[in-house]
Amino acid sequence: YLKAAEQGNTKAQYSLGELYRYGLGVIQSNKQYYIWSSIAAANGDEYRSRFALRNRDQAAKFLSPRGLEEAQEEAVKLNAKIYNKYKHKSKLWELERKAGMHPSLSKELPY
Fold it and tell me: Which of 65, 72, 89, 94 has the fewest other C-beta atoms within 10 Å?
């Protein structure tokens, strides 16, 4: 899931958050659970975003105030890196973005 998530696949971003939540195939990490849930919430369709927001809020309960701040900063940086890296990969991405299937880079993560 990591490779697909890093390439902007929102289903993979959501699923990766779930893997970190339960420690399935990765070391359990509430911080990574928060980060990937935030990214999925910012970039997914309305249905997936709603569940990702719920997951993100649940993960936040297990983080210290400083840990939450760090997770928020990392989520913003990673989200920008993902979409800056792949936004010009193909004309299809631009067509999908114009159709509302991808977020604009100015879209902030929902906190």
Answer: 65
